[in-house]
Amino acid sequence: MSAPDTNDKAAPKRPPVSLEKARKARRKFIRSAGLTAGVIGLSLLGYIPVLDARAPRLRPPGALDEADFLASCIKCGQCVQVCPVSAIRLGDLTDGFGIGVPYIDAREQACDFSCDAVQCILACPTGALTYTKPDFLPVRHGAALAQAPVLKAKAQDPEPTLNLKERFGLARLARPEACLAVQGRGFSGQARGPAFKGRMRYVEVDRWQPIALRDHPYERELCDLCVTECPIENAIAMESFTGADGVARFRPVVGEQCVGCGVCEMVCPAEPAAIVVDAQAVWKEG
């Protein structure tokens, strides 16, 4: 009979887990589960805007139609770097498939063409922003500009036009009841208040250096900022009409030369803006 193995000992019993340790383990598990759910949720955010069919973003000048633009843009940010008024931003998580894709929030900072030559198009390496679409990409009806837009700041130059073939948005008077002109009111002071950081080029101040709107106060007997500050010639004008009370009034009317830059929306002193720009909207007669 062999001698018993002295190394064959019963495994020691683990001490019972204390109530405090159990609670800590439970909290750690809940935190880990929450973090995992958060990561999964963020990844799914890419689909939420698509399902919600949110309104399209206003893209920079020369942008292809939305589907083609999203397919062509490599999110390099070159257009952001060259914009002199920092009008171009990059989409965040809530933009879904558009995350990292450039867009313009006209109310916060419009494109006023301070660069003269539309530098964002020149900087784009893929053709997502382009002066002329390739032949295999059709131009949507109403997107094409009837003629080359004349930039007011270049009116005295030998070549005052912008090399844009299509509009990237279209302005409209969305809230006529809030429009100061429609109300027959003037405007005095800073268009968007002392805290607003938006900038714009004022040729009478400096053709090449945009300044803050708050540094350029206005004095108007009848508010017409959307007309006078529009950088494109004949894109918007004041039109007279007779109100329901029989009093003659004025309202801004958007013309076919509107390219969708958003300056009118940015400078509108009404809050929220009476006039807005619809991304990728097209011109319709009548």
UniProtKB/TrEMBL annotation:
Pfam families: Fer4_7. Residues 63-93, 100-134, 250-280 form the 4Fe-4S ferredoxin-type domain. Keywords: 4Fe-4S, Iron, Iron-sulfur, Membrane, Metal-binding, Transmembrane, Transmembrane helix. The keyword Transmembrane helix applies. InterPro entries: 4Fe4S_Fe-S-bd, 4Fe4S_Fe_S_CS, PSI_iron-sulfur_center, TAT_signal. Residues 1-11 have a biased composition (Basic and acidic residues). Coiled coil: none annotated. The chain crosses the membrane at residues 29-50. One of its GO terms (molecular function) is 4 iron, 4 sulfur cluster binding. Residues 1-20 are annotated as: Disordered. This is 4Fe-4S dicluster domain-containing protein. It comes from Pseudothauera nasutitermitis.
